[in-house]
Amino acid sequence: MPGLFGYIVWLLGALLEAGVVVCAIKKKALRPYLFLNLYMASSLFVNLGRYNILQHYGLKSTQYTYFYYYSDTLLTIFLYFALTSLFSRVFSEMNAEQYVKLGAVLLLGGTAIFSYAVVHQAETKLVSRFVVELSQNLYFVGLVLTYVLWAAVLKLRETRTRLIQLVLSLGVYFSLLAANYALRNLYPSMLSIFQFLPPLVGCFLPAAWAYAFWRIPEDARLAPARLAVIR
Amino acid sequence: MMAAFILACSIIFLLQFFISYCRSLIAASVREPLSQEVQEVTGMSRPATEEEFARVVQLLQLCPERPEERGEISLIRTYFRMLGIIRSTIAKVVPSLERWASSERGQCTHFVAVVLGRRIAFSRNLFAQQMSG
Q: Where does residue A39 fall: left (phi above 0), alpha (psi -120 to 50 degrees), or beta otherwise?
């Protein structure tokens, strides 16, 4: 069972996820950012499911392990579509939505095929290995896509503060998770430390999104060139 | 090999996103002038300097906290410390970073001073409400 600190972080994450949806509803941002809110709502339900299974079967049970990794992949796919919806918003004035959707589906398919190619020689637990591999690769694809999106924001001189903050916080989240996965692979002996990080990192994204919905009005504007580290 | 590559990319991306995110939080306060009250309490000159950061944070901690500001203050303090590390390490090799880090730290101070102004106003309202109630 996770310790007291683990439960507190878990509860905090779940409350923040619920907070995002509540803030979005209060500030009338539910529909404009539907996929972001869907991701947060599904993440909340997955957390409730995980807690339920944990209480019934325990942390080291097969049921919990399967549910954890399968739901993680599902959430990663949802987050991928949330990211795609941010692309659609940034490119909305160019009427490029169809291309964005097509590109997103092709990239998702490509990542799935690549992940399968990596694990297809495994003799046992092929599906489980595929699910874990797909999740890890999608995190990295998500990170690269967020960087591309940030570059597009700067190039197209996107000024909507809320949108900019949503993109940047997603970038911080993906970078932290990708770094964590890489560290886990590089130093498997320190697994206990790196397993501890994702729930903490997981609190950052809902906190930042709730802040963006609650504190930043939809019509707030800023010059993105001021934010760029490299010009 | 692949993991090391992903780690290197992630750290570079993380730095860029984190700096830009903190700057987006600060950006709104940059145009906001400091109230007369804050200038008197802190004795701050304009523009704010990095040396004043610690003192403004101390004053901030004396005021009743507004829960919605807790996260952003922690983040800006982390950003301020990170800039300090950049200045004492990478900036030794790239001197132009020294000036940039100092200016950014000054903006962090300004941001904290703006929050201090809001907290003073908040405390005053709270006090007025209690007096009238």
A: alpha
The CA distances from residue A106 to A103, A201, B98, in Å, are: 5, 29, 44
Residue A229 is nearest to which of B2, B3, B20, comparing CB atoms?
A: B20
Is this complex's ipTM strictly greater than 0.90? Answer: no
A1 touches chain B (CB under 8 A): no
Q: What's the pTM value of the predicted model, to 2 decimals?
A: 0.89
A171, A186, A222: residue with CB nearest B7: A186
Distance from C-alpha of A23 to C-alpha of A55, rounded to nearest angstrom: 30
Instruction: Please check whether residue B16 touches A, CB under 8 A.
Output: yes
* Whether residue A224 has a cis bond before it, omega within 30° of 0: no
Q: d(Cα A228, Cα A219) in Å, to the nearest integer? A: 21
- Alpha-carbon distance of B6 to B10, in angstroms, equals 6
pLDDT, tens digit, 9 for 90 and up, residues A121-164: 776 777 888 888 888 788 888 988 999 999 999 988 888 999 99
Residues 6+ apart with CB under 8 A from B3: A181, A182, A183, A185, A186
Q: Is A165 within 8 Å of B20 when comparing Cβ atoms?
A: no
Q: Which two tokens stand for residue A27?
A: 């500030």
Q: Check if A209 contacts B (Cβ < 8 Å).
A: no
The Cα B21–Cα A154 span in angstroms is: 13
Collect all residues of chain A within an 8 Å Cβ-Cβ radius of residue B2: 185
